[in-house]
């Protein structure tokens, strides 16, 4: 998306608005459909057939981004396709989350959910590190720096002027998504098939969902958690969407330090995925999640006090401490450390949140509740970007834009105080 905003749209303000618009449309689609999808899946039984369709569609859309051309570079898929693709991927990712989360218990059993959830996120971030290094060493750095151990030009004959080193990430991600899903479809057990037809599952799922919403007294506790998650996940999503934009703008970092920043943070996120199940076991997933959100609020507040010549809101020297290609000053190194703190706590919060839901709801209704879980995480995902945009314009700084993000995290944390259960087994 940074390349799309810079090279295709050509206007960062308009580009950010388009990205936010795409997320808004995707969130609306999730809000309307995802809870019913989860309830229908519970009635039908197997998750894998629909999951395969969702995965193949994601692969096709992601791969198609290769044909999005920079402005003035000729015909290709244009801005409208990227906006549609972003909205479609928002819905597809939510559907994918609902379906594969519903496979957590069949795959790992109730006792292994926390470990499987944390390892899954850790593995995903480990793959991100490898992918970032591949893009950095094979496509981004060759031809831009004169290092003897690097190729002199991007591999595969990619043309920098046409943005091909950025565009190639679409097909790479599509291929990894396709190949990486094979072990899941081959090895993970699926729920048993029921005798319900698609029409009967639709009607029955709608009834189940209606009963779920009507039975407020019996469902008040998990619904309160989902309300809290809706708010703090908006904050998590905003950090993921705008954290890189904030780092680049505040620290004046270009392509090379931003790629380095992404690699280091992805490594830190692996640690978050490994830490979450341990915290879930020591404290219980509810207290673990509350601790993770509290630390996230603290670290994000400290990040707002950083600049090339400022540390924690106080003036600091921008003189380099060493002769290197990136992260040479004390403010840069501390900003990198705080970014690692964000990566650890955000990843851990996602993992503990997923584990907590499995502790709060009946096992036979996981599909319906994970539909609501996807709804709570994505239906208002336009809210964080909208608040960031408003606060940035009103405050006139990037830091001002993150103040409502901290507010979303804080309100979600306060609501978690009222949730019952989710303690140590």
Structural overview:
The protein is mostly helical. 75% of the residues lie in helices and 1% in strands. It has a two-stranded antiparallel ribbon with strand order 1-2. Strand 1 and strand 2 form a beta hairpin. It is globular. The two termini are 42 Å apart.
Summarize the topology.
Layout: H1 2-9, H2 12-44, H3 48-64, H4 79-101, H5 104-140, H6 164-167, H7 169-187, H8 198-214, H9 216-251, H10 255-283, H11 285-303, E1 310-311, E2 314-315, H12 330-360, H13 366-378, H14 383-395, H15 398-401, H16 403-416
Antiparallel strand pairs: 1-2
The strands making up the biggest β-sheet line up spatially as 1-2
Poorly predicted parts: none
- Average pLDDT rating: 82
Q: What is the CA-based Rg, rounded?
A: 22 Å
Termini distance? Answer: 42 Å
Order of helices and strands, N to C? HHHHHHHHHHHEEHHHHH
Kindly name the structural category. mainly alpha
Which shape, going by the Cα principal axes?
A: globular
Estimated helix fraction: over 70%
Instruction: Please report the total strand number as a whole number.
Output: 2
Continuous helix count? 16
Provide a compact summary of the structure.
With 425 residues, this protein is mostly helical.
State the main characteristics:
425 residues, two-stranded antiparallel ribbon, mainly alpha
């Amino acid at each position: 998306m940074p390349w799309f905003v810079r090279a295709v749209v050509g206007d960062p303000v308009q580009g950010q608005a388009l990205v936010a618009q795409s997320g808004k449309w995707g969130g609306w689609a999730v809000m309307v459909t995802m809870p019913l999808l989860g309830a229908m899946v519970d009635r039908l039984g197997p998750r894998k057939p629909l999951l395969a369709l969702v995965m193949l569609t994601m692969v096709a859309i992601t791969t198609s981004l290769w044909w999005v051309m920079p402005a003035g570079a000729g015909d290709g898929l244009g801005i409208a396709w990227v906006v549609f693709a972003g909205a479609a991927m928002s819905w597809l990712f939510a559907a994918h989350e609902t379906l594969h989360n519903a496979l957590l218990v069949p795959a790992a059993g109730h006792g292994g959910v926390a470990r499987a959830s944390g390892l899954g996120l850790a593995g995903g971030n480990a793959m991100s590190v490898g992918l970032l290094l591949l893009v950095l060493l094979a496509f981004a750095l060759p031809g831009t720096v004169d290092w003897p151990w690097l190729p002199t030009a991007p591999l595969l004959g990619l043309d920098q002027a046409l943005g091909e080193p950025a565009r190639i990430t679409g097909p790479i991600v599509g291929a990894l998504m396709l190949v990486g899903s094979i072990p899941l479809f081959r090895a993970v057990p699926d729920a048993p098939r029921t005798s319900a037809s698609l029409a009967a599952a639709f009607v029955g799922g709608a009834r189940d969902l209606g009963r779920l919403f009507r039975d407020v007294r019996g469902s008040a506790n998990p619904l309160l958690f989902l309300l809290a998650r809706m708010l703090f996940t908006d904050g998590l999503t905003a950090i993921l969407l705008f954290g890189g934009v904030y780092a680049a703008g505040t620290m004046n970092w270009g392509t090379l330090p931003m790629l380095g920043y992404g690699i280091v943070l992805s490594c830190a996120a692996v640690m978050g995925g490994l830490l979450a199940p341990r915290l879930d076991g020591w404290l219980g997933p509810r207290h673990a999640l509350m601790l993770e959100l509290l630390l996230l609020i603290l670290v994000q507040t400290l990040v707002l006090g950083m600049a090339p010549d400022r540390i924690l809101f106080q003036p600091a020297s921008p003189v380099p401490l060493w002769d290197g290609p990136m992260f040479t000053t004390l403010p840069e190194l501390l900003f990198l450390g705080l970014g690692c703190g964000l990566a650890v706590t955000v990843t851990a919060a996602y993992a503990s949140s997923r584990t907590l839901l499995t502790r709060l709801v009946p096992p036979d209704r996981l599909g319906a509740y994970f539909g609501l879980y996807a709804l709570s995480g994505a239906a208002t995902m336009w809210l964080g970007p909208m608040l960031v945009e408003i606060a940035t314009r009103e405050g006139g700084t990037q830091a001002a834009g993150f103040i409502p993000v901290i507010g979303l995290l804080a309100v979600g944390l306060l609501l978690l105080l009222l949730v019952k259960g989710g303690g140590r087994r």
